[in-house]
Sequence to fold (426 residues):
Amino acid sequence: MGKALDGVRILDFTHVQSGPTCTQLLAWFGADVIKVERPGTGDITRGQLQDVKGADSLYFTMLNHNKRSITIDSKNPKGKEVLEALIKTCDVLVENFAPGALDRMGLTWDHIQSLNPRMIVASIKGFGPGKYADCKVYENVAQCAGGAASTTGFRDGLPLVTGAQIGDSGTGLHLALGIVTALFQRETTGRGQRVDAAMQDGVLNLCRVKLRDQQRLAHGPLTEYSQFGEGIPFGDAVPRAGNDSGGGQPGRILKCKGWETDPNAYIYFITQAPVWEKICDVIGEPEWKAHPDFAKPAARLPRLNQIFERIEQWTMTKTKFEAMDILNEYDIPCGPILSMKEIAEEESLRATGTVVEVDHPVRGKYLSVGNPIKLSDSPTEVKRSPLLGEHTQEVLRDVLGFSDARVQEIEASGALGAPPQRIAAE
Ligand code: COA
Fold:
């Protein structure tokens, strides 16, 4: 079966996490992604957090599926020649170098356009134009600068970063959308364009509801925050709200049976207004259905601590899965706190290809997250990440059509580095 992005060729100049998540998605949708890496070391993540000696790390393998790898020294004149040839034949160049690095390689927008006016140049930087534009940025910096950290955690504790990689993978997702949109527009204009996604902007986009709350503060307290019921006054900025639900339906994380020893024996419980009466029945407080302190959502807001304490007395008598089964029978929105171990073993995620087992010639079998976006006419087949420089020869000969003599000349210049890693067994 064909793939949605068949025929699209990506010159992938990305490294670490943010850019690679973007190009991995494009590869899963069928684009031919040619990852350019520095000879010798390649993407720095190949060697970071290594768990199997001598094998590419999971950090690298889980972010670079379905790509080809070619090693080129972009600062070597012959290497530049190869890059320029690739620019002429690719549709999109994706990069997430530190600000200015692409220009320092001589690959300015003007130069790229002169080589290929149809080329889309997509970049991730930490910040957009402004006083921080030149700063290097990693995940947690973006979470802090994008409003996530100041609004995550408990009111009386430190700002917190979250485990979800909203700065890196989140911005990679934003960039991927920008790229396919630019490809779509190119169909009518015939021109390429620049696609820029700043990590601060991407995080802020995901923290949209907190900017909403910032403005609501001007009109009174945020009544769905626990702080309101506790009688603690609000300051001039959105506070950290612990595990309070971000929407209009109050929610909390509650203990379940076994919480004393299992750090994940918890459930997220939402007191959604339409099912309030069912909640009262389930927890054994049927009289709350008509009680003036509990019957209506507005009356409940100042009493959320009391309400959730009562619900927790019930959840503590059930495991998170038992509670989930009972609550779902009544359409009460809830979710178990799943550990990564439980997620790795979850059969339904395996069945949909969201968790996949991949075989790698050096490290053997490992688990990865497959494509979370399912297209009915473009199914994703997750293929292992490439070894460093595995496809250098193939790309020079088959994609660029270089003769043996030309390939030898480029090799002799040192632009391709040492011969690629050998594959022991496949
Ligand atoms: N051949 C030769 N040189 C190469 C090369 C190649 N194939 N690939 C990269 N390089 C060079 C670059 O040209 C650059 O050289 P220069 O500084 O002399 O111009 C150098 O490698 C380092 O690149 P840089 O991007 O600065 O890497 P870094 O490790 O110092 O910084 C980041 C890493 C992530 C902090 C930085 O790239 C960044 O801020 N990126 C944008 C934001 C981002 O994506 N952050 C999230 C990462 S998950």
